[in-house]
């Protein structure tokens, strides 16, 4: 999503109630399991696992949950038979939506996702219908209350390989090629600069501004998708009208 929407979404999740936090724990645990299954249990050589563990720490996931997820991935305990899928579709106003899925029941998940799109004014499309609008990027968010020297921060991240940095409300958003994630993370760490979020995600080439009823329907649709247990990530080109 856009920088503003992304940061607002992060803040909302940080303040989530216990029921939503339970879903976040489940989603991150699944991501750890699939990362281990695909690339092994050593995060040094497994970027996907490294990111999942970082997200687990940021969300205060208990170590026991993390260990169980790793054991499922290595096959030490039962479970972990998840299938990865990506659904694409359109929201109100023709906005683009991509949905990452981890499921143990493809038919159930397909029906659930289709129902959510239909219920909230969207349409589930064919594979590739909107994927071309997005590119995979490393994205770091630094809160200004933690570090507010824009010039210094820009010099640090550009030196480490960042493509762009922008100032947005109360945060700086840094974008880079996913291959430069480690270098930027290391550079920030060496300067003691804390990130509110650090991830590899899908970023739209352009955004679509929505307002009024379309914006309300779109936010409801995105929230409903994120609340589904099988949905890992939701990406959109939606940009809320500030008014």
Give your account of this protein's structure.
There is one protein chain. By secondary structure, the chain is of the alpha+beta class. It has three domains: 3-74, Arc Repressor Mutant, subunit A (Orthogonal Bundle), CATH 1.10.10; 83-130 and 206-240, YebC, transcriptional regulation domain (Alpha-Beta Plaits); 133-204, 2-Layer Sandwich (Alpha-Beta Plaits). Helices cover 45% and strands 24% of the residues. It contains eight helices and ten strands. The mean pLDDT is 90.
Please describe the topology of this protein:
Blueprint (H helix, E strand, L loop, with lengths): L2 H12 L3 H22 L7 H12 L4 H12 L8 E8 L5 E8 L2 H14 L3 E2 L9 E10 L6 H11 L3 E5 L2 E6 L4 H10 L6 E8 L3 E3 L1 H16 L3 E6 L1 E3 L3
Parallel strand pairs: 8-10
Antiparallel strand pairs: 1-2, 1-3, 2-9, 4-6, 4-7, 5-6
CATH topology call of the largest domain: Alpha-Beta Plaits
Structural class: alpha+beta
* Overall geometric form: globular
Element order, helices and strands? HHHHEEHEEHEEHEEHEE
CATH architectural grouping of the largest domain: 2-Layer Sandwich
């Amino acid at each position: 999503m856009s920088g503003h929407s992304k940061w607002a979404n992060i803040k909302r999740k940080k303040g989530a109630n216990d029921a939503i936090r339970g879903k976040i724990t489940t989603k991150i645990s699944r991501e750890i399991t699939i990362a281990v299954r695909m690339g092994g249990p050593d995060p040094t050589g497994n970027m996907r696992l490294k990111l999942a563990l970082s997200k687990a720490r940021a969300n205060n996931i208990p170590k026991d949950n993390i260990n169980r997820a790793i054991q499922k991935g290595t096959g030490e305990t039962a479970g972990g038979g998840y299938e990865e899928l990506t659904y694409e579709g359109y929201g109100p106003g023709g906005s683009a939506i991509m949905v990452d899925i981890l499921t143990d029941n493809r038919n159930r998940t397909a029906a659930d996702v289709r129902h959510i799109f239909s219920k909230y004014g969207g349409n589930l499309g064919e594979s590739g219908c909107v994927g071309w609008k997005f590119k995979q990027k490393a994205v770091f968010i630094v809160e200004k209350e933690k570090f507010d020297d824009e010039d210094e921060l820009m010099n640090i991240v550009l030196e480490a390989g960042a493509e762009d940095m922008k100032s947005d409300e109360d945060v700086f958003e840094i974008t880079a090629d996913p291959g430069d994630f480690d270098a930027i993370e290391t550079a920030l760490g060496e300067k003691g600069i804390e990130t509110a979020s650090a991830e590899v995600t899908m970023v739209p080439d352009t955004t679509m501004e929505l307002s009024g009823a379309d914006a309300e329907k779109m936010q409801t649709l995105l929230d409903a998708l994120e609340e589904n247990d099988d949905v890992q990530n939701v990406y959109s080109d939606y940009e809320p009208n500030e008014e």
